[in-house]
Amino acid sequence: MTSTLSDWAREFLREDRVGVVGTLNADGSPHLTTMWYLLADDGTLIITTLSRNQKVKNLRRDPRMTFCVGDKTRSVSLSGHVTISEDQAVVRQDLERQVERYVKDEGIRPQVVATWLQQPHVALHFKPEKVTEFSVSPMH
Hints:
Elements: H1 7-14, E1 19-24, E2 30-35, E3 38-39, E4 45-50, H2 54-61, E5 64-70, E6 74-85, H3 88-102, H4 109-116, E7 121-135
Antiparallel strand pairs: 1-2, 1-5, 3-4, 4-7, 5-6, 6-7
Helix pairs in contact: 3-4
């Protein structure tokens, strides 16, 4: 375990994947959701989501979050504290970058962003404090 991502983990997280976000409900039970994400150059994970979602309610009460991305032979798990941004310029920029990453048809990207921004969104910025990497390959 460490607080920084290895080169292979950064590469793995930048592949075409989704991640699972874990937050804590008020009763202490886990709340898990699959999310699109971005990995910034400084290792910050960026996620945009509707501001009314349960994960946002949970993070406003308790900013701890876990995030996991995996496949059949590898996984990267991150945990730490989230910063919630309601600055709509930041939210729009982050959302546009996420849509660019996940929506392959460039022609519909502006419409996807416009449609999503019809409802209030926030940006979650997550700098991991604990990183756990796993691979069955001895090369990683």
